[in-house]
Every structure is written in structure tokens, then in C-alpha cells.
Amino acid sequence: xxxxxxxxxxxxxxxxxxxxxxxxxxxxxxxxxxxxxxxxxxxxxxxxxxxxxxxxxxxxxxxxxxxxxxxxxxxxxxxxxxxxxxxxxxxxxxxxxxxxxxxxxxxxxxxxxxxxxxxxxxxxxxxxxxxxxxxxxxxxxxxxxxxxxxxxxxxxxxxxxxxxxxxxxxxxxxxxxxxxxxxxxxxxxxxxxxxxxxxxxxxxxxxxxxxxxxxxxxxxxxxxxxxxxxx
Length: 231
Known about the structure:
Blueprint: H1 2-23, E1 25-30, E2 36-41, E3 44-51, E4 58-59, E5 74-83, E6 89-97, E7 102-106, E8 110-112, E9 117-125, E10 130-139, E11 151-162, E12 167-177, E13 182-183, E14 186-187, H2 205-230
Antiparallel strand pairs: 1-2, 3-4, 3-5, 5-10, 6-9, 6-11, 7-10, 8-9, 11-12, 13-14
């Protein structure tokens, strides 16, 4: 009896585990600096991408070895929402947190300047349907970027939540380069200008004191030459 009960519990556990996987998946996203963040998801999938400044293609991430953005340059993002389930998602709320050193230019919904968050809603996302949304930002001016870094990498995060509580999140990374000349990985600064002026302080006083003695010696020398000529 005990054995049959154990088999029943194991079978029930496997069934519930499989049922949970059928209604929810796990989405993991690498985090800049190491590690990853995982969000349990339902049928709504969000994909956040950034446009490569050289190729114009939308990509998931741009590492420090990929093309970089410059100060005052526009940055174009794309958010893709996909319904992977078999029923219509009545409503999805999207929040996009803009990265540091990038200002908001345009996009759907409302932008909160204090939290740097863009919020908007999409309705009636049908099964297997994907909707794309375009957002545009602008990199800050050079004097607003970190003074001690030639390259700054930032992360942009977007989340989507359905009306029944399903949530999904995605991050995108890219880097900003100030264009500072470097040597051996360190910034090179122009040498400071050095202005040389003649000394004009108390150190001239001893020299001024020697001037009368020099004049007197010159007269005595001339006088001795005159007397020597007369002899």
C-alpha cells in the first residue's frame, strides 16, 4: 500500500510539473557584468533590440567590441511583442526603462522624465501575432558622459505584463564612445602650456648690490692704465 501511495505521489508531481511547463516557460537574459536574470513567462514574449549604428540592422546586443554610438547620436530601438498561446491576449502593458546617458526622443505612449520610463498599452494581441514598436533616443553630449571613461556601456530594459498577470522581460546592451585618443588603454591628454618669465623677485637684490662695485672697479682699472702711460 505504501509503495502504491508513493508511486501515486510521484505520478501526481510529474503531472503537475508538466502542466506548469505547458502554461509557463522561463526566460533568462544575461546581465552586463556577469550572471543572468530569469523571469517566469506565459504566452507573451517581448524582444528588445537596438539598431547597429554601422549596418542599420536590429540586434539583441552590442558588446564593447561591436560598433559604438557617439555623443549626440540618435539610437533607435525596437520592441517586438509575440503571443505564443492559443487565445487572444486582451491587454498588455509595456514599460521601457531608458538607459543612462540616453535621452528620450520619440515612441508610443507616455514618457516619465523622472523615472526615464516609457509606458504604453497594446490591446487584443491575437494568437501567433507579433507587433513591433519603434523607440528613438539620443546620446547625451560629451560633457554629460563620464569624464574618466572613453567607452561607457549601458543596458536598456523592457517589460510586458498582461491583464491576467503574465510577465516577460528583455534587456539590450550597447556602448558609447567619446572618441578620446588613447595609448595603451589610457586616455592621452595634451601637455600643459608652460610660460617662462625672467625672475623678478628678491633674488635680484644681491645682483643689484654688486653693480656699484663693478663700476668702481672699471674706473680704477682705467685710472691705473692712464698713470702707467704717463710714466
